[in-house]
Amino acid sequence: MNARVEDDLVALVRERLTREPGDLTPQRVAAALRAEGRPVGDATVLLVHEALSRDVLGAGPLEPLLRQPLVTDVLVNGPHQVFIDRGQGLEQTDVRFRDDDAVRRLAQRLAARGGRRLDDASPWVDLRLADGTRFHAVLAPLARPGTSLSLRVPRSQVFTLEQLVDTGAVTAGGARLLTRIVERRLAFLVTGGTGSGKTTLLNTLLSEVDPRERLVLVEDASELRPDHPHVVALEARPPNLEGQGAVTVCQLVRQALRMRPDRLVVGEVRGPEVVDLLAALNTGHEGGSGTLHANSAADVPARIESLALAAGLGREATHSQLSSAINVVIHLARTPAGHRFLAEVAVPMRDEAGIVRVLTAARFTACGESSTGSGADLLARALEPETS
């Protein structure tokens, strides 16, 4: 039976089975085929049953892609364009949906599994599935060329610094520098664009923390899985269908401060929680960290200022807090071919006008070359061992 015939049969059987609720079994598929006057051979029944199973279980036709070991993202642009990212840029796959209705059904089913509504009145959704996959969808016609799905797959493996060196993401010298930053308990932000590897590197650095220390993680959607014996993770919660029950990252940061953290970690700083994080790192909580979207290390102060201003913290207060809260900025970049790498290690410094500037201490290229910048002496002093 060719794929076109199978699609037609699947559509007919699906429509009939939806009118007669019950478990999806080969017997019910065979009965539906007979009722439609279609062939009921064993091979036909099994093919239609398998296709329907993919449609109602897991992530449907995307399930095999999500299970590939190197895949970090699966992106669906309507029924005929499905892409994956295996760390070397986007690749188009041969996976196709029958039509946009099939994409929409899958999106609505995944949203329902997360307890969220997805329809014309609420045409987008952002949630985490039970296996940790981050799922986002926008329905057509808002999305073009059709319903758009974005799935971010959590890493089952946490890379060590040695492995990142082997893959070329970090140079040997960069790895030594990052290790010293963690050992000296400097507060740091991992910055970069979307897909630059911020979560991957933060996972690695948190895994390097002394096992006697207690890590308290706060995230909007749980992605961090450091290889560390003492981790407590708090995850924000969106409102339910009635618009109630939301728990924000800001609220969780305040709770985390009462949980005796040796290191407070905010998985992604992108809203008013920046104010709580800056305040927390100014109250004796050394070694705190987080990630932040930014185009470059030099853009970090402006990015934090804009987030803080939106949360009601004035410019002067923001820069005052920032100058004493964050010791190091670790910036990542990504080449057009998809190679992620450590691009810069920088140090914030407050100037005479009270504005924080970021000075480059070490710069790295995608080819593994390195150089120092004007902030090298400041970083060296910050990394000096404490004297009793």
Describe the structure concisely for a colleague.
The protein has three domains: 1-57; 61-154, Beta-Lactamase (2-Layer Sandwich); 161-382, Rossmann fold (3-Layer(aba) Sandwich). Helix content is 35%, strand content 21%.
Features:
single chain, about 400 residues, alpha/beta, Beta-Lactamase, Rossmann fold, 3 domains, nine-stranded mixed β-sheet, six-stranded antiparallel β-sheet, 13 helices, about 35% helix, elongated, disordered N terminus
What does this entry look like structurally?
With 388 residues, this protein is an alpha/beta fold. The protein folds into 3 domains: 1-57; 61-154, Beta-Lactamase; 161-382, Rossmann fold (3-Layer(aba) Sandwich), CATH 3.40.50.300. 35% of the residues lie in helices and 21% in strands. It has helices at 3-19, 26-35, 42-56, 63-66, 100-113, 161-167, 172-183, 198-207, 249-256, 273-281, 300-310, 315-325, 376-382, and strands at 73-77, 82-85, 90-92, 124-128, 134-138, 148-152, 188-192, 215-219, 231-235, 263-266, 289-293, 328-334, 340-350, 356-364, 370-372. The strands form 2 sheets. The protein has a 9-stranded mixed β-sheet with strand order 9-8-10-11-7-12-13-14-15, with helices on both faces. It has a 6-stranded antiparallel β-sheet with strand order 3-2-1-6-5-4, covered by helices on one side. Strand 14 and strand 15 (370-372) form a beta hairpin. Helix 1 crosses helix 3, helix 10 packs across helix 12 and helix 11 (300-310) crosses helix 12 (315-325). It is elongated, with a radius of gyration of 25 Å.
